[in-house]
TrEMBL record, chain A:
Name recorded for this polypeptide: Thioredoxin reductase
Organism taxonomic ancestry: Bacteria, Bacillati, Actinomycetota, Actinomycetes, Pseudonocardiales
Organism: Saccharopolyspora antimicrobica
Keywords, in A-Z order: Oxidoreductase
Keyword check for Transport: no
Domain FAD/NAD(P)-binding: 11-306
Pfam families registered for this protein in UniProt: Pyr_redox_2
PANTHER family: ANAEROBIC GLYCEROL-3-PHOSPHATE DEHYDROGENASE SUBUNIT B (PTHR42949)
GO molecular function: oxidoreductase activity
UniProt keyword Iron-sulfur, yes or no: no
From TrEMBL, chain B:
Ranges for domain FAD dependent oxidoreductase: 11-357
Signal peptide: none
Residue intervals of the BFD-like [2Fe-2S]-binding domain: 406-459
Protein name: Glycerol-3-phosphate dehydrogenase
InterPro entries, per the entry: BFD-like_2Fe2S-bd_dom, BFD-like_2Fe2S-bd_dom_sf, FAD-dep_OxRdtase, FAD/NAD-bd_sf, G3P_Oxidase/Oxidoreductase
Length: 419, 467
């Protein structure tokens, strides 16, 4: 028995070879003299898009539509061509006493010490247990992640009649995956009164996929042994309960960042996202540790994560070159109802604007023509009517200009919506 | 396979491969006896043994003078020694009983006295300052407590598996997926009719857990009746583990032992159980009421814990008996023994029950001749978080890179461990069995990342086994 570790000293270590980590690596590798090492615990790099076998990737960063696996391959190729070293099957299990990353690989144990570390560990869906759905514990209950893994990477069969819990963008991705596997979606449920992601999909949703969607509906029990036989659903308006027969249940959305390394490092956690607190340049509170992608905003699309990678790379370069020190003068950005969270959470004087000059937020209620309001110390500092709706189930984008009028030293900026 | 059973006669058939039955089979197989261990489910420890609070009890709170008190106290030492020998993970965390009101506070001296009567003298009554020093995350309002430094947490899955593995290596014939349907006692052999053929035995031991009263009735007895008592539990994310490093027990009341907060051997924190008397012996579903009850209790005991993510929820059924004590008896005329009404303390007392029962069997005429060719006790894979696990062991990885390939990220289970489980003496028959042997898929993502891989490894393993 031994816990001896081989020491590695790249210039930059990136944890996670998904869109955010790969894009950061692609930007950084040609720009730094030392090694840019990307660590990923999966056997293949590329992250979640690898098992989203449908188009819709890359529009905002590559300005073209790609399928998930195709997009993932391009990201990997670009990072490697840029000179980054990608190590797969390499799981970061924790931090050493002096701040190194402890890594397990088939080639042995490593301790990675780098001048800068980027945490790009992404997010995952809360499974049934975390959502506290009672009942039997039969086979046939999945998250979208597990479902796509089973179907697209392992080519396995699932059931024939599925109920989908949630109606986020990813929920429609689950419908497509189920259809590929020969499984009909008998019902999609949402606790929200209105499902905006549905409108996005209204044409394929109504004409092609024929998925009945029930809003203001909650799952109250899973029934069946050893396989799912039915799900009990409750109409939140009337309290009436009904049993819907099905043999597969997919819990979709309801994201949580993979924040274990963040917490193990003792970094401040944002209570809304449960990811690390970062400023607009994606620095965490500890110098030399950065974060990017869906670990910050659970969950946005792959291309937005990749643009975070670009943003964080610029910030990492400044840190390495000691060109610019982050200002002590900063403002904390706080999400107020109906916003559940906002990212990034800190704006420092003199810093770059957030990626695409957008603040990302999650909303709990649908607002058709939202007026976004920034207040500081009870005083409205900025207000803006947006032409796009705020809808549960997908990220709501807020122009970064809203922060311009806020002053450091005068308290947190609260962001909220008015109808 | 079943046809061979029809003709052969074993010396002793043990019904039930839970902790108690496995311990009994192992003990019997230490003598010159042909032993069969018959289990209705497809895996050992898949009934009441798999889902309990996994505490290695000192027996401090048993009813003094009972057989249970005697066997828990003895079993505590036997199992601890066996765990050291085989590598069953356990952690001597100690326990703290917390008094939340004056009535509970007043009950502490009585509990201390009772512990002493049970032969456990290391308890101490402490004030609120010491209570909060020991568990700073407790909610406000604790008035005092009683420390029980000997209480420990242990891996119930590995305990059961170690005993069953040991039994099999000693020559016991393990017959899984054999449900005993009827019993015919003859003059010198008993025929157990199962769904997969007859098993003929000279002696029969009934350790059928929740079904032990039904089997007992098959032998014509009517001495105890069981009903399932459902206990629901919440298991919190590993990030909560620093909040609790000892077992936090309520002061027991007339209504039972109540809800506890305990670290788990896998590095989580557990809250539960509920106690609900049921009639259906297979209903292990969880309920809205159960969750609400646990949340309410947890909010008082440790509000900070309730803010965290829940990794798993489950329900176990324990055998509640109308008899006030364990029923461990031998019917010499029928060459039949029973170990029934063994509640959750059976995890601790199992090996002592086996020892006690063998004594009774010998007196009743079962000849026990020691064997000289006993194999060594098995070395169990470590799935406890407090000990070095393969993913962090550079020597093991150097010798076999499969231990450096992490398959289940949340629980850090490696390919090597899953392969070993598939090739072990008692391989798993399903995903749950694999979970109990390795922890794979038991983590916070519940299979988001590893579910498909783990399923594939299980099915590959099964294909190889059936080739």
């Amino acid at each position: 028995m031994s816990t001896a570790r081989t020491r590695l000293t790249p210039e930059v270590a990136i944890v996670g070879a998904g869109p955010a980590g790969l894009r950061a690596a692609q930007e950084l590798a040609p720009a730094v003299p030392g090694e840019v090492l990307v660590l990923d615990r999966e056997q293949q790099a590329g992250g979640i898009p690898r098992h989203c076998d449908h188009p819709g990737f890359g529009i905002r960063d590559l300005h073209r539509f790609h399928s998930g696996p195709d997009y993932a391959r391009r990201m990997v190729d670009s990072a490697e061509r840029a000179g980054a070293v990608i190590r797969t099957g390499a799981m970061v299990t924790g931090w050493s006493a002096d701040g190194g990353l402890e890594v397990t690989t088939p080639d042995g144990l490593f301790e990675v010490h780098a001048e800068a570390i980027v945490l790009a560990t992404g997010a995952r869906e809360r499974p049934r247990t975390a959502r506290m759905v009672p009942g039997d514990r039969p086979d046939g209950v999945y998250t979208t992640g597990q479902l796509q893994n089973l179907v697209h990477l392992h080519h396995r069969k699932v059931g024939t009649k599925a109920l989908i819990v949630g109606s986020e963008l990813v929920s429609w991705s689950a419908v497509l995956t189920l259809r590929d596997a020969g499984c009909d979606t008998v019902l999609m449920t949402s606790e929200h009164p209105k499902v905006e992601s549905y409108a996005l999909f209204s044409v394929p949703g109504k004409l092609g996929l024929r998925v009945p969607v029930r809003t203001r509906t909650k799952i109250t029990r899973i029934i069946g042994k050893p396989r799912v036989e039915a799900v009990e659903v409750e109409d939140l308006a009337t309290g009436r309960r009904e049993v819907v027969p099905c043999d597969t249940v997919v819990f979709t959305g309801d994201w949580i960042p993979d924040n274990e390394l963040v917490r193990a490092a003792g970094l401040a956690l944002d209570p809304g996202t449960l990811g690390p607190v970062v400023d607009t340049e994606l620095r965490t509170e500890r110098p030399g540790i950065f974060a990017a992608g869906n670990v910050l905003h659970p969950v946005d699309t792959a291309d937005i994560a990749a643009l975070d990678g670009k943003q964080v790379a610029a910030s990492v370069l400044d840190h390495l070159r000691e060109k610019r020190h982050p200002s002590e003068k900063s403002i904390r950005i706080v999400a107020d109802e109906p916003l559940r969270w906002i990212s990034p959470m800190v704006r420092r004087v003199g810093d770059r604007r957030p990626a695409r000059n957008r603040l990302l937020a999650w909303v709990d209620h649908y607002v058709a023509f939202p007026r976004v309001v920034a207040t500081q110390n009870g005083r409205v500092v900025a207000e803006k009517r947006l032409p796009w709706p705020a809808a549960p189930g997908r990220v709501f984008r807020i122009p970064g200009d809203l922060l311009d009028a806020a002053r450091p030293g005068e308290g947190d900026v609260h962001i909220s919506l008015r109808r | 396979m079943t046809s061979a059973h029809d003709t052969e006669i074993v010396d002793v058939a043990v019904i039930g491969a839970g902790v108690v039955g496995s311990a009994i089979a192992r003990a019997l197989a230490g003598y010159q006896l042909e032993v069969a261990l018959i289990e209705s489910r497809c895996d050992v420890g898949d009934g009441t043994s798999k889902a309990n609070t996994a505490i290695l009890h000192t027996g401090f709170d048993a009813k003094p003078g009972t057989l249970e008190s005697q066997l828990v106290s003895r079993g505590y030492h036997l199992l601890k020694a066996y765990a050291d020998e085989t590598g069953i993970p356990y952690e001597p965390t100690g326990a703290l009983l917390v008094a939340w009101d004056e009535e509970q506070l007043a009950a502490l001296p009585g509990l201390q006295e009772k512990a002493a009567q049970n032969g456990y003298a290391e308890t101490e009554i402490v004030g609120p300052d010491e209570v909060y020093r020991q568990v700073p995350t407790l909610g406000p309002g604790a008035l005092g407590g009683l420390t029980v430094p000997g209480e420990s947490i242990i891996c119930t899955w590995t305990t059961n598996l170690a005993l069953a593995t040991d039994a099999v290596r000693r020559g016991t014939r393990l017959m899984r997926s054999h449900r005993v349907e009827s019993v015919t006692v003859g003059s010198d052999e008993t025929v157990l009719r199962t769904n997969r053929g007859d098993v003929r035995a000279r002696w029969v031991v009934n350790a059928a857990g929740l079904g032990s009263d039904v089997i007992d009735a098959q032998f014509g007895h009517d001495r105890f009746h069981l009903h399932p008592r459902r206990g629901e539990l919440l298991v919190f994310d590993k990030q909560t583990r620093p909040m609790v490093d000892k077992i936090v027990l309520p002061v027991p009341s007339k209504l039972g032992k109540g809800v506890l907060v305990s670290p788990t051997i896998y590095g989580n924190v557990m809250l539960g159980p509920t106690a609900e008397d049921m009639t259906n012996r297979s209903d292990t579903s969880t309920t809205e009421d159960g969750y609400e009850f646990l949340r309410e209790k947890g909010e008082r005991i440790m509000p900070q814990l309730l803010r965290e993510e829940v990794t798993a929820t489950y329900a176990g059924l324990r055998a509640a008996s109308d008899a006030p004590d364990y029923t461990v008896e031998v019917d010499a005329a029928q060459r039949y023994a029973v170990a029934g009404g063994i509640r959750s303390t059976g995890l601790t007392s199992g090996m002592a029950i086996a020892e006690h029962l063998l004594g009774l069997l010998e007196k009743a005429g079962l000849e026990l001749h020691e064997r000289e060719d006993l194999p060594d006790a098995p070395q169990m894979p470590n799935i406890g978080e407090a000990y070095l696990r393969p993913y962090a062991d550079s020597d093991r990885i150097a010798a076999d890179p499969a231990y450096g390939t992490v398959v289940c990220f949340c629980e850090r289970v490696t390919k090597g461990e899953i392969r070993d489980a598939m090739n072990s003496t008692i391989p798993p028959c399903d995903l749950d069995g694999l979970r109990r042997r390795t922890r794979a898929m038991n983590g916070r993502c519940q299979g988001f990342y590893c579910g498909a891989n783990v399923t594939e490894m299980l099915q590959d393993g099964e294909r190889k086994a059936h080739r």
